Amino acid sequence: MQELVVISGKGGTGKTSLTASLAVLAKSAVVADCDVDAADLHLVLPPQIKERHEFFAGWEAVIRQADCIACGECLNFCRYDAINMIEEIPGAKKYFVDPIACEGCGVCVRFCPVKAIDFLERRCGEWFVSETRVGPMVHAKLGIAAENSGKLVATVRQSARRIAEAAKRALVIVDGPPGIGCPVIASITGTTQVLVVTEPTVSGEHDLERVLALTRHFGIPTAVCVNKWDLNLKMTTMIEKKASKAGAQIAGRIRYDPCVTKAQIQEMAVVETDAPSAVDIENIWKTINITGDIR
């Protein structure tokens, strides 16, 4: 089983649109949306949810008001300003934990003199196994202000691999997060290859350098495609030269095409329409064979 992860140095480069099109062209892949902080692959590949799972990671403190003696020790020990105090009537203080500010360190739990603080596993979001018109898709939704997105990414990837093995599908296509942080590292480690989508801009060039340094660090075969290349041919040429020098392969170019937005509105992948850029994406797919090797 092979795995292709599509990432970008920044958001908004067209990564998800390209991933959806590759999933359509693959015909028999399992798709995973690992951009759990802002998942949107489901907007192009509408899913029918078959399984729904809660995602727990870390801990949070919760004060049991019935047992709290309002001594204020938790407030004194908390270094994250997560303990709040209200005085509804004079002399009647109430302490409670702000779940967003709480870091789950457990200090308040440890030093509460009457053990009136519970330490509960934190629910950070949900992940789903769905069916789409291109096959199975595993995706997730991280809660507001929730952390541990790297762990959720790993959960999504592992589930997609299990489904691929059970269904005897040879390829997993992953829509990865942008940037070079923990969620990206969790998306690419151990993968067969990475396809980086960039744009012909100064920021695109800079972000690409960082992404290529990351994939080179992990020794992952990497290809690069330039989206909207015709907006700046000089920058496109410069980016491709730098990418080649950094050891990446050039997978191709995608022209600027307003029809991409029209396809998104219709909940369709670009290659399912008569958009001019569909030809460019098909050429990129031909450059990347299904075994995960760049030709």
Q: How would you characterize this protein structure?
A:
The protein has 295 residues and is α/β, with parallel strands linked by helices. The chain folds into 2 domains: 2-56 and 126-287, P-loop containing nucleotide triphosphate hydrolases (Rossmann fold); 65-115, Alpha-Beta Plaits, CATH 3.30.70.20. Helix content is 32%, strand content 31%. The chain has helices spanning 15-26, 73-77, 107-111, 149-167, 182-188, 202-217, 233-245, 259-265, 277-287, and strands spanning 2-8, 30-33, 48-63, 83-89, 92-97, 117-132, 135-142, 171-178, 193-198, 222-227, 249-254. The strands form 2 sheets. It has a 9-stranded mixed beta sheet, with helices on both faces. The chain has a two-stranded antiparallel sheet with strand order 4-5. The longest helix is centred in the middle third of the chain and has 19 residues, at 149-167. The radius of gyration is 23 Å and the shape is elongated. Mean pLDDT is 93; it is low at 291-295.
Short overview:
This protein has 9 helices and 11 strands. It has 295 residues and is α/β, with parallel strands linked by helices. Helix 4 packs parallel to helix 5 and helix 6 packs parallel to helix 7.
